[in-house]
Amino acid sequence: MNLLESAKAGIIEFLENDRQKVLLLNGTEQFKKHLLALYMIGIFEKRGTLLFRTNTLRNAEDFLQMKSRAESGHAYTYNKSLSVYIDTNSSFLWKETPSSVDYCILYPLESIEKEEAKKTIVSDAICRTAKKVFIVSSKPQAIEDWLTEFVDAVVHFDASRSPIKKNAAF
Fold this sequence. Notes:
Layout: H1 3-16, E1 22-26, H2 30-44, E2 48-54, H3 57-63, E3 76-78, E4 82-88, E5 101-106, H4 115-127, E6 129-136, E7 153-156
Helix pairs in contact: 1-2
């Protein structure tokens, strides 16, 4: 099984496990892991809502390869099955996105710079997510000490050696 297939299998195992809520997706090539998570959720979920939380709306446009300007509070359709909402690590935008979603992708983890904000941002994402939270790290393997209390599963994806294309999501 190649690295991409192994990561996909780990994500499917996580999505099917009712006892796990938070996955840390780490590895190389930070610009592919969040797209892999989005792709796998889109395959797994026939209809649902997803919160994509990142450091800035402008970065969301780049990370999701959007053709239009990202707005907080607006639902974007992905793969005809997911309504995707975007917000940032700044709590003032959180009121513009739904208080309850099915899935959340928090990316990149390293964009949370202030020590006191880390747990608040992750806790809020977990509280508003009914099903699964994907925390995507740009670090190859390490899990930071403060994060261990939240994470139920870890999937490692070395994207630099795997044949995944960056496809426009929106």
